[in-house]
Amino acid sequence: MARLEFFYDYGSPYSYLADTQLAGLRERTGCEIAYRPMLLGGVFKATGNQSPALEPIEAKRNYGAADMRRWIDLLGVPFQTNPNFPINTLLLMRTTHAAVATGVFDAFHEAVYPAFWAEGRNLGEPGEIAAVCATAGIDGEKLLAMAAEQPAKDALRATTEEAVARGVFGAPSLFVGDALFFGQDRLPFVERALRNGG
C-alpha cells in the first residue's frame, strides 16, 4: 500500500483545502495517510520563509487572495477568512500531538479544521480549543494539560525539525516516499505518484 505523509499546520488555509481532498484521494488510490502535524511558524523561522499574507508585493498579495477564492469555489468547500488570522498555533499544534498520544486524533482533526476555516474560531485561545474538543466528545482540558507537558512539546518539535530536514519550507507539504510535493494545487502529482507506487 502506498503511503502519503501530510505535513500541515491548522493555521494554513491551503492545508485546510488540501485536507478536504484527502479522503477522496485515499478512496481512489487506496493509500495510507499519515498526518504529520508540525509548527509552520517554526518551519518559517528555520528556512527564512514567511506567510503569503506577509507578501511585500501588493499586486502579488492581491493575486494570492483572488487565487485562494478561485480554489475555494472550485472545490466547493465551506470557508470563511478567519477574522483572528494570523493565529499563533503553537498551543493548538501541541494539543494535536496530545490528541495523537491519547488516540483521539481522528475526532480532534475532524472538529478543528471546520472550526478554524469554516466557523472562524480563535483557536489560539485555550478556551476555544477546549470548546471545539467538547463538540467532538473529547476532553479538551485533558489535552490542554498534556500540551503543556514535555512529551507533547518534544513531539511537535521533532516533527517540525524532521520536516525542515526533509526539505519542507511551507504548508501543506506532502511526501510520497522521498518525493516532496508542496501546496494543495499539487495533489494531481501526488495522486500520480501514489498510483505509480511512489
Descriptive keywords:
alpha+beta; four-stranded mixed beta sheet; 198 residues; 4 strands; 9 helices; single chain; 56% helix; Glutaredoxin
If you had to describe this structure to a student in words, what would you say it looks like?
It is a single chain. The chain is 56% helix and 10% strand. It is of the alpha+beta class. The chain has one domain (3-195): Glutaredoxin (3-Layer(aba) Sandwich). Helix 2 (40-47) crosses helix 8 and helix 5 packs across helix 6.
SSE topology string:
EHEHHHHHHHEEH
CATH topology: Glutaredoxin
* Uncertain residue ranges: none
Strand composition percent: 5-15%
The structural domain count equals: 1
> Which structural class best describes the helix and strand composition?
alpha+beta
Distance between the termini: 10 Å
Largest sheet: 4 strands, mixed
Note the total helix count: 9
Radius of gyration: 16 Å
CATH architecture verdict: 3-Layer(aba) Sandwich
Strand order of the largest sheet: 2-1-3-4
- Average per-residue pLDDT, rounded, comes to 96
Quickly name the level 1 CATH class.
Answer: Alpha Beta
Q: What is the share of helical residues?
A: 55-70%
CATH superfamily: Glutaredoxin
In total, how many beta strands?
4
Write the SSE topology:
Elements: E1 3-8, H1 13-29, E2 32-37, H2 40-47, H3 58-75, H4 90-101, H5 105-117, H6 126-135, H7 140-147, H8 150-165, E3 173-176, E4 179-182, H9 187-195
Short note summarizing the structure:
This protein is an alpha+beta fold and 198 residues long. It contains nine helices and four strands, in the order βαβαααααααββα. Helix 1 links the parallel strand 1 and strand 2.
